[in-house]
Design a protein that fits this description.
The chain is globular. The longest helix has 16 residues. It has 1 helix and 7 strands. It has 106 residues and is of the alpha/beta class. It has one domain: Sandwich (Immunoglobulin-like), CATH 2.60.40.420. The protein has a 4-stranded mixed beta sheet, with no helix packed on it. A 3-stranded mixed beta sheet has the order 3-7-6, with no helix packed on it. The structure holds copper (II) ion.
């Protein structure tokens, strides 16, 4: 039984080798790029490269409460395990919007 668990763990580790990290910059009150397409299992990292302005990344369809602010020099990351379109916005600046399009891993 234990050997099967080890094999399953190894296989899932191998599967995550292909997973990518994609960076979205936050600059001048914009998400750059605002739209990205990733594969299931990939991680998106939002980096605030502003001089002073804080922001956050709020997936309103997934999270009820507004998340913590991301201050300049800080980042926030989220891994997407399921396919779908995930829209988000910045809590303090609702005009700042973006979308993560997650497609099935090939
Ligand atoms: Cu903002």
């Amino acid at each position: 039984m234990r050997i099967f668990i080890v094999i399953i763990l190894l296989l899932s580790a191998l599967g995550s080798v292909n997973a990518k990290e994609v960076v979205v910059k936050i600059f001048k009150k914009q998400f750059i790029p605002a739209e990205i397409i990733i594969e299931a299992g990939d991680t998106v990292i939002w980096k605030n490269v502003e001089k002073r302005q804080y922001h956050n990344v709020w997936f309103k369809q997934l999270v009820k409460e507004e998340p913590d602010y991301i201050f300049p020099g800080e980042s926030y990351q989220r891994t997407f395990s399921k396919p779908g379109d995930f829209a988000y916005e910045c809590g303090p600046h609702p005009k700042m919007v973006g979308v993560v399009k997650v497609v099935t891993r090939q």
